[in-house]
Amino acid sequence: MDHSELLATLAGIVGEAQVITAAHDIEPYVNDWRRMFGAPAICAVRPANTAEVSAVVRACAAARVAIVPQGGNTGLAGGGVPLGDAPQVVLSLARLNRIRDVDAVGLTMLVEAGVVLQEAQLAATDAGLLLPISFGAQGSARVGGVISTNAGGVNVLRYGMTRQSVLGLEVVLADGSVVDGLRRLHKDNAGYDWKQIFIGSEGTLGIVTAAVLRLVPKPTQRVTALLAVADPAAALALLARARVSLGDCITAFELISGKSLAIVADHIGRASPLAAAPWFVLIEASSSLAGLRDAVEEVLGAALEAEEATDGVLAESESQANDLWSLREHITDAEKAAGPSVKHDVSVPVADIPAFLEAAAAAVAAAHEGAWVNAFGHVGDGNIHFNVVIPPAMEPHAVNHTVHEIVAGFGGSISAEHGIGQYRTGELETYKSAPEKALQHLLKSALDPAGRLNPGKVLFASPKRS
Ligand code: 2HG
Ligand code: ZN
């Protein structure tokens, strides 16, 4: 099909330089960073502000062309890249990159969708505040994508998912209309809280263009430790102990398998300060009250004595703390270097994590010879990344099925924090109940009746009416 008319209209809206069609230039917009997902697009278009986003959406609607909204393209489920061969345009939010204000009294910040998460974090820090959303891809992930996927990360235990940090939203709907809900209010019960349906719906219901985010006072002290533990049950015992003494001061509690740290050493060249062990826990506590370090030392001492932990290192400086975090944050890159992997971003009730890990590892070993498990994750939230590295010829879907059946047996979720994207639509069909699916399709057909916003993502089949 000839789309020259649409391309000319888009160039008229955003300027010719911001309509990308050349094969080499469009490549990073139409493929995900792991090169697992991607499909051709008519172009990638880069509007500079909300009015231009709206005009682009109207132009695509008039041309009956689908839109794939894209932030930093750091997702793991292919939600931000094209799928299939329908005519589609990638709408990059990268140029909507202004931090409009930081309100240190009201503890809010107003940011556009294309702001890189780390830049938003730094702006909060400059004001003595904390934007409590944190994960490995924060140097490239953009706020609009973080919101559209309701991203999780390492601080969910203390501060909740991204949803808990969003106070107001501006969205462009499928017909190009703009809904401005950029209120800086901590309390607002005036009618439906409509912003919630755009958070985590991966651009299938509307396009997030700006947001008011909730900030918190930045704790003045942070204590970070890496501990070796015998097994996941010991990690949970340690978590329970730490909660009694440190309460809300625990900001992160990550479970890391020995294998995960081994691949970080082998493929990234970063070695753990601790000797090899079956499992590790990375714990971080933060507070502005004096005495945090003593309190953490006391807990860890007691945990060693009770043999919940078998070895440990407490960071002595900010740079040592960062080094410990760097081991954790490089697991994804190390896994990518280790070979093709089948990701499982699952959650089960926290108390079931040891049984889940045992059952899932046994099922993979029994059914998929040559595959090995790279398990790590946010154990305090019940969220494990139970990734399986497979020989190149192995069929990934069978591995998915093996793991997700175990997850279902524990009443768990097949996507705890990465979303559904295009990777998990089939499984969502399998594991969601019929009334839940019907409700989701009702929302989709109300907000995007023509099925043009990110088609084929989240929902298996988008209703199409024109
Ligand atoms: C993390 O916790 C991310 O590091 C990525 O959610 C997990 O690579 C993964 O599967
Ligand atoms: Zn994670």
Radius of gyration: 23 Å
Main sheet: strands, sense, barrel: 8 strands, antiparallel
Number of domains: 4
CATH class of the largest domain: Alpha Beta
What fraction of the residues are assigned to beta strands by DSSP? 15-25%
Structural class: alpha+beta
Shape: globular
**What is the helix fraction of residues, given as a range?**
25-40%
Specify the oligomeric state.
single chain
Q: Average pLDDT value?
A: 96
Small molecules held by this entry: (2R)-2-hydroxypentanedioic acid, zinc ion
End-to-end Cα distance, whole Å, is 18 Å
CATH-level-2 architecture of the largest domain: 2-Layer Sandwich
CATH topology of the largest domain: Uridine Diphospho-n-acetylenolpyruvylglucosamine Reductase, domain 3
Which tags fit this structure?
466 residues, alpha+beta, Uridine Diphospho-n-acetylenolpyruvylglucosamine Reductase, domain 3, Alpha-Beta Plaits, eight-stranded antiparallel beta sheet, 16 helices, 21% strand, globular, binds (2R)-2-hydroxypentanedioic acid, binds zinc ion
Brief sketch in words of this structure:
This protein is 36% helix and 21% strand. It is α+β, with helices and mostly antiparallel strands. It has 4 domains: 4-92, Uridine Diphospho-n-acetylenolpyruvylglucosamine Reductase, domain 2, CATH 3.30.43; 99-217, 2-Layer Sandwich (Uridine Diphospho-n-acetylenolpyruvylglucosamine Reductase, domain 3); 221-327, Alpha-Beta Plaits, CATH 3.30.70; 339-428, Alpha-Beta Plaits.
